[in-house]
Fold this protein.
Amino acid sequence: MESHPDILEMRARHERAATTPRAQAIEALGVITGLYLAASPWIAGFNGFSTLAVTNLIVGLSYALLMGGFGHAFERTHSMAWAAAALGAWTIVAPWVVAGEVDTTRTITNNVIVGVIACLLALAAAAGANMPSGRRSRGGASGYGSHDTGPTER
């Protein structure tokens, strides 16, 4: 099964997707977003709310590891971008869901902004995996083995 032509083509397509500057930028921004989320209770100054601080620490580290894994094993992890989007959604609702009175203006503002950014980055990572090769470039052949037609074939 490992040498099946469809699997080899799929791996090659995912390898091309993971090596684009766009995919690398999404991965880097995702890791930075996750690390900020993990450290945000101490950066934004709400580390006294221990339940939300622990939640942000765990979710932030998980998000950073998940988004950072895309570049190393893209063909096996691109579908996990939906899990990263779920972590972003959790970040948005966490101030209202975790135990204790942690829904202050500072915690809500921090988590909503970081959660929206995390969701957008995860959705961009998921979309990048499913985007046909022809949409990645605008003029002629992309150099990644796509099926773009040249200017004379249009």
In short: Confidence is low (pLDDT under 50) at residues 133-151. Residues 79 and 123 are 10 Å apart (CA to CA). The first helix runs from residue 5 to 18.
